[in-house]
Amino acid sequence: MYKGLFMDFGGVIADEGYRDGLHKIADKYNIASDIFFKKCADLIYESGYITGDCNQERYFTEIRRFFQIDIKDEEFENMILNSFKIRYSILEIVDRIRGRGVITAILSDQTDWLDRLDSKYRFFRFFDYVFNSYHIKMGKRDEKTFIYVADKVGLKTSEIIFIDDQSPNVERAKRSGMNAVCIADENEIINFLKRNFKEV
């Protein structure tokens, strides 16, 4: 029996608002969306924003400078954050799993946006732990992160199921010993949880 359920935020607990928001911005400013997304995703790591080593203003400034676009911080932030749609049907199942004594956690490469989203939607309450790269100063690109979070909750990696929508993260989690799966579709996630945590 699994003792822990760890889940990514964007693409699992919620629709992938970061990607969707960036695509909307790219469309508005006539930039190829795949190029815009890749560069923004690289910069969020390179700038240190993902691990709390710089703030949103600096991150947005780097993007504006690279693409030569005139977009205000407020518009940039709103187009990203408003694109996250919480999947409450998944949270209802997580709540039942947690009620059976399984440790539940968010494990997300995110920024202070995650805290702002929780202030609005109140989804942290469904989880025992929230491991946000912005606060723990390490992300899922580092394989040691998976061992670190397992140790923090007092479990072996082999006792944890981890769901993420990005296959590189899943592969690193597997190498750490976690039972990791790559799923993004809401209904598929629900069915997976029902299969692996009986009576939910």
What's the topology here?
Blueprint: E1 4-7, H1 17-28, H2 33-46, H3 56-67, H4 73-81, H5 88-99, E2 103-108, H6 113-121, E3 129-132, H7 133-136, H8 144-153, E4 160-164, H9 167-176, E5 179-182, H10 186-196
Parallel strand pairs: 1-2, 1-4, 2-3, 4-5
Arithmetic mean of pLDDT: 96
Helix content: 40-55%
Task: Tell me the series of helices and strands, N- to C-terminal.
Answer: EHHHHHEHEHHEHEH
Number of strands: 5
Radius of gyration: 17 Å
The CATH class of the largest domain turns out to be Alpha Beta
Per CATH, which architecture of the largest domain? 3-Layer(aba) Sandwich
Number of domains: 2
State the separation between the terminal residues, measured CA to CA: 14 Å
> Which of globular, elongated, flat, extended, rod-shaped describes the shape?
globular
- Percentage beta strand: 5-15%
Which class best fits the helix and strand makeup? alpha/beta
Tell me the strand order in the biggest sheet: 3-2-1-4-5
Report the CATH topology name of the largest domain.
Rossmann fold
| Largest sheet geometry | 5 strands, parallel
Fourth-level CATH superfamily of the largest domain: HAD superfamily/HAD-like
- Number of helical segments with 4 or more residues: 10
* Low confidence ranges: none
